[in-house]
Amino acid sequence: MRKYRRRPRLTEAEKVMMWNRWQQGDSLHAIARLLDTSHTSVRRHLVANGGIRPPQRRRSQLALTLAEREEISRGIVAGHSIREIATELERAPSTISRELRRNGGRQHYRANRADQAAWNRAHRPKRCKLVTNPALALIVAQQLKALWSPEQIAGWLKRTYPDDESFQVSHETIYRTLFIQARGALKKELLQYLRRTRTMRRSRHQTQKTADHGRIKDTISIRERPAEAEDRAVPGHWEGDLLIGSHNSQIATLVERHSRYVMLVRVKSKHTETVINALIKQAHKLPRELYKSLTWDRGKEMADHKRFSLDTNIKVYFCDPKSPWQRGSNENTNGLLRQYFPKGMDLSNVHQNRLNAVARRLNERPRKTLNFESPAERFNQCVASTG
Q1: Beta carbons within 8 Å of 190's beta carbon, 6+ residues apart
Q2: pTM greater than 0.70 (yes/no)
Q3: What is the dihedral of CA 266, 270, 276, 281, to 10 degrees?
Q4: Over 90: is that where the pLDDT of 361 sits?
């Protein structure tokens, strides 16, 4: 029978290095090479904790220390009574009595062994709030099915139940309960309703976007965009992009920077003439005061941007190459849209009515950045102010 060499388990120091690298955004393969192990071994450790670094364990300040246990051991050898040992350590006699009873009694007590056993016994996970409050867990599950993010749910709960902390929960607790199934409060099936259907959380530093879209003539840099657009103080400044599907299909996505209001536009191809025509048609549906500028990446679909500006009197600003964060609202929205239009989906069969319905659902979600108002509420205020 063939024998396989088993890889040694990761040491505590290696686990610390693994979590540090994972939080810095390193890939599984890069971490595995560093630790001289397989990427499947690294993945197994990460998945067991949902990709979330376990909190560092600390001893309770009330617990006996190793030094105190050594004093107990010396007291036993010297023939001191439990009460005498307790007086020497300024501890209750019941504490010393319980320590001896748990660890073999006076005859078999060993300080190092007792200290390690106490550390092992103390490894009890804290009960999750969603486990102790089933009604809260039900509300969270319902909102996840409505495709709300954990952060939106947490903010909405705080706004809805301001005086009842038992019905408030952090978004991190929701994520941890989803990814660490040992908690048992939220079913694993609810993961499918998250924006990104992963089995564990990724580091915020990870990115796979390295697309270089080429050059467009006569572009106006985002650095020339007016200050009112930069600080989001005034409505009417938009960000745009194409959401790509299979079979060369796409949707134009537009997000207003002040209110985060979303508009989705059906486009038949990525050809610049088709995209520009669709954007011009959409622009004419809004009051002039609410469409002052458009910020786009360097995609070739905007090669005819000058025609768009000439027809609508709307300036188009372009991001720096490989800088998607300069259109942060639009990038975030495209991530939300993947809940409705997953990667690999053919978008050519999606009707404009369907796009309008999805946009409406996004615009009715509470947003943390709007103090948990919805984009629709904020945008309607802007429309009303234009008269």
Answers
A1: 141, 144, 145, 178
A2: no
A3: -10
A4: yes
